[in-house]
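Help!! Second protein's tokens look totally different from the first
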Amino acid sequence: MKAVCISVLLALVAVAGCASSEAESQAVVGYDFSAIDKIAIVEVTGRVYGDAAKNQIGNLFTLELMKKGYRFIERKDIQALLKEQEFQASDITTNAGAAEVGKVLNVPAVMLIDIPRYKGEKMDMSAKMIDVEDGTILWIGTGSGKTGKTLSTILGAAAGAAAGAVIAGGDSSDRVLGGVIGGVVGGVAGNALSPDQEKQVRKVVADVVKDLPARIPQAQTSK
């Protein structure tokens, strides 16, 4: 029993230590991105629930794009306007709907971020920048990666599972193993990203927007 649990924990720790990401993107050729003086991230959709995690992901995109010279409207201001204008959630997740929001916000472009998969350690992500005037996509990027789990999360899940097994009147390997897996694979649901998750999501975001054209010429590194 103990040998099985130790083996499972070692395997989980090994997996937790591995984090990777890959991404690609495409922008409209010849478009003058310097004309975009301000952007609004209209919504973060998909398998991440709750404003805490959505705000964190939105802020990570904002940080990376500000490095490229873009300015942003705060998410709280966008949410207030959406509520005031009585936009429905389904209205703002399409290109045309997001463009309408952009017109009300008086910005030339908006962004939609989608997390189609966030299960356990694995996350898929896509983002697109939309022209407010006609609803066309100016840039789109996709990426995926392992968000990572800390050792403390895994050991905490194991401890909780073992305690649960004892309270239940048994200590079978199946019960403990099931508790560990359940505790680790739970995901963020409506909670904020953990520091380790945020670190790995930051890497995925950085890879996704890496080739997005900068609004201003980037400073050359002195030799």
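Here's the second one for comparison:
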Amino acid sequence: MVADDDTSTADDEAEGDATTAETDTPPTRYAGIVDPTGTDVVLHTDVATYPDLAAAAKADGFDQLVDLTAVDYLTYAAPRRLPAGVVAERFEVVTQLRNPDSGERIRIRVQVPADAPAVATLFDLWPGSENLEREVYDMFGIEFIDHPDMSRILMPDDWVGHPLRKDYAVGAIPVQFKAASNIR
């Protein structure tokens, strides 16, 4: 009899957990939605709350900016794995931070709309973000608001377009070598 009662209680608790999971809001950290499906700590935010989330992480000991890059999902056909409440956009800025005291890493994923590809700079928090943000601007065309030098870093200044955008025309650019001749 005790076993039957324990089983029915476990079933009732399982049903209660399922109901609770459906109605609960997603977990948050620094006001960013935590992606509960992965093994890494991934925080999702939008353009408006990105600088506040980054500042809160910095205040909590995430002093090292490991990487900052972007992704263009224009031609990505597979379903995107985003937590409830996060609206998928064409671009995503991905920032990787590390807490040197604890060794913990967090990844911040910011959905950036195609019609206004701009986010706030992290230069004031991590000056080392300067060239990383310039590279994202140069390759993807995502502008970093209040960046001290928002100019191209890899492509010539007169280059038209942003080569890592999925809608960038693929063409043939002749390779030129110094002191090479065409005589065979």
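Reply: Different proteins will give different token patterns, so don't panic. Residues 21-184 form a domain with the Beta Polymerase; domain 2 fold (CATH 3.30.460.80).
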